[in-house]
Design goal:
Strand content: 5-15%
Number of domains: 2
Strand order of the largest sheet: 3-2-5-6-8-7
CATH topology of the largest domain: Heat Shock Protein 90
Radius of gyration: 46 Å
Order of helices and strands: HHHHHHEHEEHEHEEHHEEH
Number of strands: 8
Shape: rod-shaped
CATH architecture of the largest domain: 2-Layer Sandwich
CATH superfamily of the largest domain: Histidine kinase-like ATPase, C-terminal domain
């Protein structure tokens, strides 16, 4: 029985607390106009109550003073002259006269005194309960925003005017944070785009330099036929056109994601020939020999004729500019780390509609840290890599281009030593149509 009563008592207390919290929440959410009316009504009730009690008390004290005199005199005073302040006290003398005048003064003027004091107390309470905290929050928020410090939150649990204002300041802070983050994203994108532009210009220029060195080395010796010279000049002209197109494209975009994908129907032989031409050009510079599918490519036209003997013509959908950009970037990376040899292997999976390029170099391979971070932008394993113009962005650009072409980029270490980079590209009409529609 006691346990039941105890439980009922607890439930009753919880219900009471819930009601009190509900009333407090309702009062807290009142608008300023309604809150002021409520405060004034409470003030009026308090002033009325205190004034009534004070007047009754003073009247009783006055009556106590009057009882010292004769009944007839008292009746005459009350009914003829009345107990009015400053009049009708000729029957009292000395201390009694002053005391009665004071009580009558208090009785007459106490409502005005209570009203004045109550207004001051009410204003102080209203400021403390409804204004002090939100105004402090707003002041602190404005100061921190002025100092460009947005790592804070404006929280004021009320639905009154200042509560709405605090919510607006919080929304403004959130928008400022979002705008700042977006600005930093744009800055990073622009930085990445500038680095990509500078990086991608280096490889075509290197290829052109390779062709130039090739002509300067063999033309004076008469070892280059007129036909070969015409082919080389045509290749150089084609690279210059690609540079012009690339510069025009990069001028109108804001990030690597906006680089357009323009797939066309091309032959597999034609694509492999262009790969051979890139390998041939890069073979003209440096001491590293680059092998394309088992051949050390020194003459792209001849080697592609050999490779094409047993290869039937196959049509694929691809953006050869994107594929060659990836190849050039990966080869540039491999040349930097290779000792003497680089191998390039191309493969086409007709069933999957996928074209892939694999580049292996006989260098030291990827360290554990580089394997994890090689595809991230601006990653350089050694700080000494910066002075030679290496931005640490080449593989990141390749990954973005492969992703744009519906493929992937993977880095690994070979079991025979050195690093292996494999780039794949989707070259089926169906997959590329889906990619272009999503973008």
């Amino acid at each position: 029985m006691d346990r039941v009563r105890s439980r009922e008592s607890v439930l009753r207390m919880d219900w009471l607390e819930e009601k009190v919290e509900g009333i407090a929440g309702y009062i807290r959410n009142l608008s300023f106009r309604k809150a002021m009316i409520a405060y004034i009504l409470v003030l009026s009730a308090v002033v009325f109550g205190l004034s009534y009690l004070t007047m009754v008390l003073c009247w009783q004290l006055e009556l106590a003073e009057w009882t010292r005199y004769e009944q007839n005199s008292l009746s005459d005073i009350i009914y003829k002259e009345g107990p009015i302040w400053g009049h009708g006290y000729h029957f009292a003398q000395g201390t009694e006269h002053s005391r009665i005048r004071l009580l009558d003064f208090i009785r007459v003027w106490c409502p005005f005194f209570y009203a004045f004091a109550g207004m001051i107390v009410t204003i102080c309470i209203f400021y403390k309960k409804r204004l002090a905290r939100p105004l402090a929050l707003l002041k602190d928020s404005v100061m921190r925003i002025r100092e460009n410090d947005l790592d804070f939150h404006v929280t004021y649990e009320s639905e009154d005017e200042l509560g709405i204002l605090c919510d607006s300041v919080e929304d403004m802070r959130t928008e400022l944070v979002r705008g700042k983050e977006e600005m930093w994203r744009l800055v990073e994108r622009q930085k990445e785009l500038n680095a990509a532009f500078a990086h991608d210009l280096r490889t075509p220029l290197t290829v052109l330099r390779g062709y130039t060195d090739f002509l300067m080395r063999y033309v004076p010796e008469g070892r280059v036929s007129e036909e070969k010279m015409q082919d080389t000049l045509a290749l150089m002209s084609d690279y210059l056109r690609r540079l012009e197109d690339y510069s025009r494209t990069m001028k109108g975009i804001r990030s690597i994601d906006e680089v357009p994908l323009c797939p066309e129907r091309i032959g597999l032989k034609s694509l492999e020939k262009k790969i051979g031409e890139v390998v041939c050009a890069l073979n003209q510079i440096g001491d590293v020999e680059i092998y394309y599918s088992g051949y050390c490519v020194k003459n792209a036209a001849d080697i592609m004729e050999e490779r094409s003997e047993d290869r039937e013509e196959t049509g694929i959908s691809a953006d050869d500019n994107v594929i060659l950009e990836v190849l050039e970037n990966v080869l540039s990376n491999a040349i930097r780390y290779a000792r003497r040899k680089i191998e390039v292997i191309s493969d086409y999976d007709k069933a999957e509609g996928e074209f892939s390029l694999t580049v292996w170099d006989d260098g030291e391979g990827f360290s554990k840290e580089r394997l994890e971070k090689a595809l991230k932008p601006y990653y350089k394993e050694y700080e000494s890599e910066e002075p030679d113009g290496h931005f640490g962005i080449g593989l990141h650009i390749c990954r973005e281009f492969c992703k744009k072409h519906g493929g992937t980029l993977n880095v690994a270490n070979s079991i025979r030593g050195g690093a292996v980079v494999t780039a794949s590209f989707s070259v089926s009409d169906k997959n590329l149509s889906l990619i272009l529609s999503d973008s």
